[in-house]
Design a protein that fits this description.
single chain; 11 helices; about 240 residues
Length: about 240
């Protein structure tokens, strides 16, 4: 345990893509356990004051942020909420925010395609989990086309050099961006609460920081597995207990 948190602390002070190594299964399982413990403790500590803020807003402004979030999430998922939250969402989000961190050309290309696909669906105002149909394939082809254009106009040597020189910025930026996208769970956003919304997604930012560390330390699949396990309780809740 001491070694894991020592490496996490070292990485937090100066994120670098320098110590990635193949992980033995036993060591990987141990890291998953420590990661879940870290996230649970961190999220609990963060949510204690945040819950107080949420209750104050509910009391003085009659705005139930928790209920708004729950309804938005339930509305976007449909009948496949368990599979989406516990499996599909982690795969998509890890591909967009962390697959590219190691700088491999193919991984960057896949991340660009995934990000383009998400943006296209959002612009169209549809859920990325709407199912496999004609529009799904149209959006996917469009995303692949945008990815191809990106690779056609961007100098990968320059891109890799930029990543190498600014990995710390890119790592923290991906962690913050990962948290910020979850503000959409509280839509429609209210101007009077703009300073409050970042507080609500601090657990997701901490999660992004942790998963970025795991992605570099253990590899992409471990980041996906931990993401799935973190999401699993919420998946069970929205599938079997939450009633809109």
């Amino acid at each position: 345990m001491k070694d894991f948190f020592s490496e996490l602390w070292t990485f937090a002070k100066c994120p670098e893509n320098t110590f990635y190594r193949p992980t033995k299964i036993r060591n990987g399982i141990i890291d998953i356990y420590y990661s879940l413990a870290f996230y649970l403790i961190t999220a609990t500590v963060i949510m204690i004051p945040v819950t107080g803020v949420i209750q104050i807003i509910k009391y003085f402004f009659s705005i139930d942020l928790i209920n708004i979030r729950n309804k938005n999430i339930e509305k976007s998922l449909g009948i496949y909420s368990l599979a989406i939250i516990a499996l599909l969402a982690p795969i998509i989000e890890e591909t967009v925010f962390r697959l590219w961190l190691t700088g491999r050309k193919g991984f960057i290309f896949l991340s660009i395609i995934a990000a383009s696909w998400v943006i296209i669906t959002k612009v169209k105002g549809i859920s990325i989990y709407s199912g496999v149909n004609g529009e799904f394939f149209h959006n996917l082809v469009s995303a692949i086309f945008l990815g191809a254009i990106f690779f056609g106009v961007v100098n990968l040597t320059v891109l890799k050099k930029f990543r190498s020189n600014h990995f710390k910025l890119l790592y923290w930026g991906s962690s913050v961006a990962f948290g910020l996208i979850h503000i959409a769970n509280f839509a429609p956003l209210k101007l009077s609460l703009l300073l409050i919304y970042p507080l609500l997604i601090l657990p997701q930012m901490a999660m992004g920081f942790l998963l970025g560390f795991i992605r570099v330390k253990n590899g992409f699949l471990y980041a996906v597995m931990i993401h799935c396990l973190i999401n699993l309780p919420g998946a069970i809740y929205y599938s079997y207990f939450f009633k809109n």
